[in-house]
Amino acid sequence: MLPVLDSDSTNIDYPEAYQKGYILFCDLEILVNENVLIPRIETEKIVELVENYINENSKRLSNEINILDIGTGSGCIAIALAKIIKHAKITAIDISEKALEVAKTNAKKHNVENKIEFVQNDLLSEYNKKHDIIVSNLPYIPTDYIQNLNDSVKKFEPILALDGGKEGFELYRKLFKQIIYNDINPKFIIIEFDDTHSEIALIEGKKYFPNHHVSIKKDKYGYDRFLSISVK
């Protein structure tokens, strides 16, 4: 079990998931503390979209599917994919060493530590390994909007996992540039963004991947939430 951090759990705003030390994600008990963002139920859709893509494109994929999870946090996406997709080999990247400690603990808890390689890195800087699929749920809250978030979020969840820069899309622009520059050449990319960013997500997706299928996918509540980029 993860260590309990020294926060005032009697505070009415203190997140329940941190109080309990875990949250359910894709029916898996994911351990969390203040070093990682609390996984949201909307994000489970990423796992579903990847599974659907693999099922629909099995002929163009190799027997061993290489998946890259960028900004893994608690490791929830990588671990869920490792449990569901038996022939997947997953690399999970995060800039935070403390977040990776949580992710590694979760991987061991769910017996998938041998299927996931954890790497501490700033997105894809100096990283050029090939991957079939890239998934990412990077920070996407505009810097100036963070002060407007609920106290349960802005007081306790890591700012590093929330702040997406001036517009909230800066890290994704950086990521897209690195994917192209480092010639990682994935067949499928799926990212999560703020539900007000569908227009900018489409513009940037088509800008960096003009020869790909680029589309918006909705979350379980009907909000624009994911950018899908796939080879034609």
Topology record:
Elements: H1 16-20, E1 22-25, E2 28-31, H2 44-56, E3 65-70, H3 76-84, E4 88-94, H4 97-109, E5 116-120, E6 133-136, H5 151-154, H6 170-181, E7 188-192, H7 198-208, E8 212-218, E9 224-231
Parallel strand pairs: 3-4, 3-6, 4-5, 6-7
Antiparallel strand pairs: 1-2, 7-9, 8-9
Helix pairs in contact: 2-3
Taken together, the total number of domains comes to 1
Q: Would you tell me the structural class of the helices and strands?
A: alpha/beta
- Sketch the topology as an H/E string, one letter per element: HEEHEHEHEEHHEHEE
The average pLDDT is: 93
Q: Per CATH, which architecture?
A: 3-Layer(aba) Sandwich
- How many DSSP helices? 7
Secondary structure: number of strands: 9
Proportion of beta-strand residues: 15-25%
Provide the gyration radius in Å.
17 Å
CATH class: Alpha Beta
| Broad shape | globular
Strand order of the main beta sheet, please?
Answer: 5-4-3-6-7-9-8
Main beta-sheet strand count, sense and barrel state? 7 strands, mixed
Assigned CATH superfamily? Vaccinia Virus protein VP39
Parts with pLDDT < 50 across at least 5 consecutive residues: 1-7
Measured as a percent range, the helix fraction is: 25-40%
Summarize the model shown.
This protein has 232 residues and is an alpha/beta fold. It has helices at 16-20, 44-56, 76-84, 97-109, 151-154, 170-181, 198-208, and strands spanning 22-25, 28-31, 65-70, 88-94, 116-120, 133-136, 188-192, 212-218, 224-231.
